[in-house]
Amino acid sequence: MTENKDQNNNPFSKGKNGNNLLKSPKFNAYWIYGLIAVAFIALNLLNIGQNPKETSWQTVKNKMIKNQDVERIVVVRNLLEVNVYLKSESLDKYPDLFESSFDSPSKSGPHYTFPIGSIEQFANQLESAQSNISDLNRIEPEYTTQQNYFSDFLGWILPFALIIGIWFYVFRRMSKGSGGSGGAGNIFNVGKSKAKVFDKESNININFKDVAGLAEAKEEVEEIVEFLKHPQRYTKLGGKIPKGALLVGPPGTGKTLLAKAVAGEANVPFFSMSGSDFVEMFVGVGASRVRDLFKQAKEKSPCIVFIDEIDAIGRARGKNPNMGSNDERENTLNQLLTEMDGFDTNSGVIILAATNRADILDRALMRAGRFDRQIHVELPDLNERREIFEVHLRPLKLDPKIDPAFLAKQTPGFSGADIANVCNESALIAARRKKDLIEKQDFLDAIDRIVGGLEKKNKIISVDEKKTIAFHEAGHATISWLLEYAHPLVKVTIVPRGKALGAAWYLPEERSITTKEQMLDEMCSTLGGRAAEELTFEKISTGAQNDLEKVTKQAIAMVSIFGMSDKIGNVSYYDSTGQSDYSFSKPYSEKTAELIDKEVKILIDASYKRAKQVLLENKEGHRKLAELLLEREVIFSEDLEAIFGKRKFGSPKLEEEIKQIPKKEESKEENDTESKAV
Ligand SMILES: Nc1ncnc2c1ncn2[C@@H]1O[C@H](COP(=O)(O)OP(=O)(O)OP(=O)(O)O)[C@@H](O)[C@H]1O
Ligand SMILES: [Zn+2]
């Protein structure tokens, strides 16, 4: 009751508060099978009323032909059967014909049928049987071929029945996976939206306090909450309530969370659907799902419709219709645009959409009256990471010494989702160690695990391989220590994790623009691994593949995007709008392409030479570092400082921060359990 009152106060309210719009009749496969069976029986019955009586050639010859009761004789070639039609005035002579009311021939015939051996033979037999009948009364056989409707029908219907059966099966499987309240439970509901609805009853109860950081984004969406709560305030002044906002940012940064929080704060239903849910293998399904989603939303207004991964449908429509454009997707997008234009601004439905590629979205989506606001949701900085940790540490049983600020420092570049993952993982690790509280070490291990994939202690690496890896990693470390702009090093390990056999961790400075010098120094330190291998062993290995890939991409970007090569000059072939069809044709000539290739090679060669130079000049230090790595498997910035002396460059503040990162001792306990498992 109270809820109804609530709604009536709201100008958006349609006074409708039922779930019945989600219901649809429940058909199932058995119905179809039943229908097919009925059709079979009906056909059979029809046939039954037409059945000529079985007889034999002898009877026909000796009785019917002799008495001149036969009107026509029809030979059915394909069935090797003869149908006999009697004269209507003679029918009385054959009372047995119609004695059964169920299985009897029709009055007009054929009345009798009998099998024959071959057509020629029968023709001869008929000829001779009529040899003493006058020409006038003689019966000439007619010839036909007959369709056997029944078996033909079977032949047709069976494959169809099979296909229908398979369809049902597939649909049931599909809809089971996506059991949203759209009720896409069967074939008749394909076009229904699969939106998940969270309304007042099943409230998600996510509020702004559950969303840490994201201060600016929150401020922007707070306005939407106000629109939903007090629409009169805006409409009174003649303002129009926005229809939609686009949340833009990398994966896991809390876009879904923020949208849910808006719904939670405004206390309105929340429809959630992913862009990829609209796209289906059938033509027209996407568009009809959009229609259905908006229909449902309007009935529940005011509400929030959230479309995750909108890029799945909202990608720019191709300019060249012949080149692999996707009609189905475009239809869906067009329907979405139509719906957005269609509903009244003040209908109380606000659409939030999320994407991590705003640049590839169709411009039409961003036009006024559609998603005309973009809200940026970025990766959290140090402070925000601390806040996110605080949110996710709340439900955990912690060692009181745990400091969220410390954890935030350990996790540069982590998204909110990664941090949630770290917290969960640390609880699992602590549980495995049979602890009552989660301690610092558990967190550090969880972070390591998430950074580098699971440690693979049992991966077998030969002594030679280990040596190669150590010198390779020491090469990276040495160069990044000595070059001015390389990222400061945190630690280097040769403990294999995931696919990597060794790794060097850096603390990336938070830069907004990068200079050419910085890029060159980074390339040089990335190539340090291979350079070290070549200098030390006079052999190179596949271990540098990842490094080479990174360097090549970097060099190509420098030449063709950032305009940093002399020969190409200040030219950028990058198209930030994503609207061009460069996928098939490059925006530059063949000659330029060659020049770009040359420039890229020159850049990489120069960096490699420089890397070798640096390593040669610091041969002793590099060797010491590699040996230390072989011995300890993990080394830290202090170890580098002990070998090369204090780092001449970089910000002292950052260096200080690095030093505060504690060194993780390989925990004995874990080693024990793991070695048992081997
Ligand atoms: N700012 C944040 N505060 C608290 N938790 C967060 C934050 N950002 C992310 N999380 C955690 O990460 C999880 C995943 O975030 P969410 O699904 O909202 O990310 P997303 O940006 O929508 O990702 P995607 O682009 O992959 O859909 C959330 O459920 C939440 O636990
Ligand atoms: Zn490397």
TrEMBL record:
Keywords: ATP-binding, Cell membrane, Hydrolase, Membrane, Metal-binding, Metalloprotease, Nucleotide-binding, Protease, Transmembrane, Transmembrane helix, Zinc. It is a multi-pass membrane protein. Residues 654-667 have a biased composition (Basic and acidic residues). Its EC number is 3.4.24.-. This is ATP-dependent zinc metalloprotease FtsH. Its cofactor is Zn(2+). It comes from Ancylomarina longa. In the N-terminal section; belongs to the AAA ATPase family. In the central section; belongs to the AAA ATPase family. Zn(2+) binds at H472, H476, D547. The chain crosses the membrane at residues 30-48, 153-171. It comes from the Bacteria. Acts as a processive, ATP-dependent zinc metallopeptidase for both cytoplasmic and membrane proteins. Plays a role in the quality control of integral membrane proteins. CDD domains: RecA-like_FtsH.
